[in-house]
Each structure stands twice: as structure tokens, then as C-alpha cells.
UniProtKB/TrEMBL annotation:
Coiled-coil features, chain-numbered ranges: none
Annotated organism of origin: Trema orientale (Charcoal tree)
Transmembrane segments: 152-175, 196-214
Keyword set, alphabetical order: Membrane, Repeat, Transmembrane, Transmembrane helix, Transport
GO cellular component: membrane
InterPro entries: MCP, MCP_dom_sf, MCP_transmembrane
Example GO BP: transmembrane transport
Stated name of the protein: Mitochondrial carrier protein
KW Magnesium (keyword) present: no
Length: 286
């Protein structure tokens, strides 16, 4: 639902991040409408809708699984005096109490979902940035495979993982931390829907702001081949952006990204927490 409604902002964000067209949000909107009509604002939305279902399912499922496993392991280690590393006759006690299960689970969620669904991300970006070259999904799949084989569907996977780690770790860590802190300050066990919406939006805003320069470099690498000037690695992509646009160029498209990320993140967490509560009640009725 959120992807369908916010698709125009995703289109504008992608175009601005990779340096296609106007440098401001309103100018990009008008440019897309002028060149492709209103439907151009939803370019690549079909593949985005297909992409988000497995991505969110894998990401949130991995997050919950790893978080629970890490929390359970830490509790067991506390009872057994923690894990030990044996080197010959020397036994070293490893302290793991400082490791945040939420941060580890967030990082794992981002990595697993990225590895599983990256080809769909590549297709979405190609359809969004170059609709004249890739007019539909079937043509995009055929052309990408013909030009670069299976490996072409994983173009930019290294910078994607590098960018996903800080984003995903921060995103889940900030959400859980803000939720727990707010509940503690208000003496509440759970949050209502509007509160979940706001905290989810703030978590998305924080994570997106911190990792946005890496997102710019990632998008540049993923679609750079279309412009005939693909930088060899992430550091080169960042350097190229700074050289062309200055330091502020690393945050080009940040406004459009926030307009998309905040409601998307807030609605995602609101629906996720609501359905989780419903399913837990059905599984374990009072």
C-alpha cells in the first residue's frame, strides 16, 4: 500500500540521487510529467511492488529471528559465565554483554534481504531511470541478461551491502531504542498506533540521514553503466559526486528521500506491530 501511494516520491528520489534531470523536487516532478506524462511518476512501480513483498518479509522475519536468538544466547551465557576461547592451556573469557541483539539483528536483516532481493532492486532502478531503454519488465530482464548475464542482476551488490549495513543497523536500533525509551518515560507497556507511526518515521529519518551519502554512491554505481561512466568502486563514486556537485551533492535527493522514507517507515512499523499483536493473541489466547 505505501509503495503504491509513495511511488512518485521514489521515482523523484532515484532520479535526483543518480543525477538525472532537475536538481529540485518540484522541477523533477514537472520534468517527468512533461516527458512521460503522469504515468511516468509510477515508472518501475510494478517491480517495486513485487520487490517489497519478499524484501519486507525476509527482512522483518530475519530481524525477529536473530534478535530472539541473540537475546536467548546472552541470557544463557550470563548463567554459564559466558563463552570461552581455549588456546592451548590458556582459557579466555569472551564478554558479549556489550553487543546489542537489536543492532546485530538489524544488520543481519539488511544483509539477508539484500542478497535475496537485489536483482529486483536493479530492475526497479533501470525501469525508473531509463524507461526509454527499458519500457517494460520483460524487456528489462531480457536486455540486462543479454548485456551482462546473471551477474548483471547483481550490479552494485558490494556497495549495496556496504550501504545497507549502517542503514539497517541504525534503523532497527533507533526504532527499538526510541520505542523502549518512550514506553519507559510514559510508564506504558505498548504504544498506540499514532505513537508507532511517529517513532517509525523518526527511525527511518535518522537511519536515512546517516547513510544517505552511501545511498548516493550505491545508486550511482548501479545505474552508472546506463550513462557510460560507471565508477569502479564506492570510494570512487563518492569522490566523483563530491567533484561534480561538492559536499552537498552527497545529500542531493535527501528531501525527496525523507518525504518517502518517513511515512513509509512509520506505516510499515504501525502495520507490522498491529499484525504481530493480532497473530500472537490468536496463537496464545488468554
Amino acid at each position: 500500500m505505501t509503495k503504491a501511494v509513495l511511488a512518485p516520491l521514489e521515482t523523484i528520489r532515484t532520479r535526483m540521487v543518480v543525477g538525472v534531470g532537475s536538481k529540485n523536487i518540484s522541477g523533477s516532478f514537472l520534468e517527468v510529467i512533461e516527458q512521460q506524462g503522469w504515468t511516468g511518476l509510477w515508472a518501475g512501480n510494478a517491480i517495486n511492488m513485487i520487490r517489497i513483498i519478499p524484501t519486507q518479509a525476509i527482512e522483518l522475519g530475519t530481524f525477529e529471528c536473530v534478535k530472539r536468538a541473540m537475546t536467548s544466547a546472552q541470557e544463557k551465557w550470563k548463567q554459564t559465565d559466558g563463552p570461552r576461547l581455549q588456546i592451548g592451556s590458556v582459557s579466555l573469557k569472551l564478554s558479549v554483554s556489550w553487543i546489542s541483539p537489536v543492532a546485530v539483528a538489524g544488520a543481519a536483516a539488511g544483509v539477508v534481504s539484500t542478497l535475496a532481493c537485489h536483482p529486483l532492486e536493479v530492475l526497479k532502478d533501470r525501469l525508473t531511470v531509463s524507461p526509454e531503454v527499458y519500457p517494460c519488465l520483460s524487456v528489462a530482464i531480457s536486455k540486462i541478461h543479454k548485456d551482462g548475464g546473471i551477474g548483471a542482476f547483481y550490479a552494485g551488490i558490494s556497495p549495496t551491502l556496504m550501504g545497507m549495513l549502517p542503514y539497517s543497523t541504525c534503523y532497527y536500533f533507533m526504532y527499538e531504542t526510541m520505542k523502549k525509551s518512550y514506553c519507559k518515560s510514559k510508564n506504558k507497556e505498548s504504544l498506540n498506533r499514532p505513537e508507532l507511526l511517529v517513532i517509525g518515521a523518526l527511525a527511518g529519518l535518522t537511519a536515512s540521514t546517516i547513510s544517505f551519502p552511501l545511498e548516493v554512491a550505491r545508486k550511482r554505481l548501479m545505474v552508472g553503466a546506463l550513462q557510460g561512466k560507471c565508477p569502479p568502486h564506492m570510494a570512487a563514486a563518492l569522490s566523483e559526486v563530491v567533484k561534480e556537485r561538492g559536499i552537498l551533492g552527497l545529500y542531493r535527493g535527501w528531501g525527496a528521500s525523507c518525504l518517502k522514507v518517513m511515512p513509509s517507515s512509520g506505516i510499515t512499523w504501525m502495520f507490522y506491530e498491529a499484525w504481530k499483536d493480532i497473530l500472537l493473541v490468536q496463537r496464545h489466547p488468554l
